[in-house]
Amino acid sequence: MHGFANPKRFLSLAQWLTPLLLVSGLIVTAVALFWGVTSVPPDRLMGETVRILFIHVPTAWLGMGGWSAIAISSLVFLVWRHPLAAIAARAAAVPGLVFTIICLATGSIWGRPTWGTWWVWDGRLTSMLVLAFLYLAYIALAQASDREGVSARIPAIFGLLGAVNIPIINRSVVWWNSLHQPPSITMGKSAIDAVFLQPLLLAVLGFSLIFGGVVLARMRALLADIQAEARLRRRALEADCNA
Amino acid sequence: MKAKHQRLILIVLALIALIGAGLLASYALRNQASYFYLPEQMAANPPEPGQAVRLGGMVEPGSLEKQADGITVTFAVTGRENSRIPVRFAGILPDLFVEGSGVVAEGRLDASGTFVADNLLAKHDENYVPRELEGMSEHQAAEMAEETTVGLE
């Protein structure tokens, strides 16, 4: 584990792992969505709109997974002071936000024909919207800490604080009466029939691979940024000395 | 003790306190954060007639009736413990609105104890079943309806 905390070793690993994850993720996702859209029968009540499931559920899980990654990386950064952990946390924020927004948008589109409304302020929908705002705040904070020279600990602490929302999202449909239905998949039991579940799990795998690939790509970009900055600073210093 | 162990213990304690606070707050919000009343909650603790509230439960099978004017429907929403609230609604029903399925009605109680709905939202349950399987699962459907009511808790 500690071996990968070395940025040089990480970069040589990420160099071939990034395209591998991205390409395999795109292929798996395309297969899963093609399967889900073309050869799955309509649901008994919802009919054809059930196909939104194959985007809505993976993006919802990864939206929450993204923040979990931020929280774990932030913990590692705060306790062990691994600089790579701070970079991993920052890299997970934008893909996490994008997936959360896709989840909210597909949920809204799905809600109109099934529930009869685009949006309601029930526990699940509201807590998911809060997650999107938390991502925005985290991204703003991480950028500010970068530019203003504020300690990187501040976004890390915010990443840990925001993790409180994750169990709330998960439990919102159990604790409170909500328009959103209770969880379909709990502790290895699924209320989703196998014809829907198989393409769904494949889509989850595909979206997760894409997520991992994007995080690695962003980590490489952030590391390159830091290197470029350091090089510029060194050159400016040398120029100063020569003058 | 090493500095990093101190930091770890401090952060873990802070996290436990934070998550505890979050859980307590959510637990305290249980009633306020609920999106609708269940029939048994409404029967036990009726809101003021005319106060805007939401009622959620199952549409009682066999209770759906179309009135003579053609747009008004009446049905009963049931919960657990044989609780039952009659509902009147004039308007377009959502596609997923069927007897034995979940519904959330927005409206108010009138003086006679009937819930007058301005808007109906269909509540989907957590089961995803293809159409082909539907015919053979009368018993299963009943079980599902039961599970969904449990889920409404």
Automatic annotation (TrEMBL), chain A:
The entry lists its GO molecular-function terms as: heme binding; heme transmembrane transporter activity
Name its cellular compartments.
Cell inner membrane; Membrane
Question: What is its membrane topology?
Answer: Multi-pass membrane protein
What are the GO BP annotations of this UniProt entry? cytochrome complex assembly
Regions crossing the membrane: 20-40, 60-80, 92-111, 123-142, 154-176, 196-217
Instruction: Provide the function of this protein.
Output: Required for the export of heme to the periplasm for the biogenesis of c-type cytochromes.
Q: Where is the Cytochrome c assembly protein domain positioned along the sequence?
A: 15-180
Spell out the GO cellular component terms annotated for this protein, sorted alphabetically and separated by semicolons: plasma membrane
Q: Which family does it belong to?
A: Belongs to the CcmC/CycZ/HelC family.
UniProt keywords (A-Z) are: Cell inner membrane, Cell membrane, Cytochrome c-type biogenesis, Membrane, Transmembrane, Transmembrane helix, Transport
Principal location class: membrane
Q: Which domain of life is it from?
A: Bacteria
Name the chain's protein. Answer: Heme exporter protein C
Q: Does the keyword Cell inner membrane apply?
A: yes
Q: Is Transmembrane among the key words of this record?
A: yes
Organism encoding this protein: Qipengyuania nanhaisediminis
Q: Which gene encodes it?
A: ccmC
Q: List the NCBIfam families hit by this protein, alphabetically.
A: ccmC
From TrEMBL, chain B:
GO terms under cellular component:
plasma membrane
Matching InterPro entries: CcmE, CcmE-like_sf, NA-bd_OB-fold
Iron among keywords: yes
- List all topological domains (Extracellular): 29-153
Localization recorded for this chain is:
Cell membrane; Membrane
User: Membrane among the record's keywords?
Assistant: yes
Q: What membrane topology does this protein have?
A: Single-pass type II membrane protein
Query: In which domain of life is the source organism classified?
Result: Bacteria
Entry binding sites for heme? H124, Y128
Give one GO term, molecular function aspect: metal ion binding
Q: Which GO terms describe its biological process?
A: cytochrome complex assembly; protein-heme linkage
User: What is an example of a Pfam family matching this protein?
Assistant: CcmE
Question: Any ranges marked Cytoplasmic in the topology annotation, and which?
Answer: 1-7
UniProt keyword terms in alphabetical order: Cell membrane, Cytochrome c-type biogenesis, Heme, Iron, Membrane, Metal-binding, Signal-anchor, Transmembrane, Transmembrane helix
Membrane-spanning regions, if any?
none
Family assignment from sequence similarity: Belongs to the CcmE/CycJ family.
Q: What does this protein do?
A: Heme chaperone required for the biogenesis of c-type cytochromes. Transiently binds heme delivered by CcmC and transfers the heme to apo-cytochromes in a process facilitated by CcmF and CcmH.
Q: What is this protein called?
A: Cytochrome c-type biogenesis protein CcmE
Organism from which the protein derives: Qipengyuania nanhaisediminis
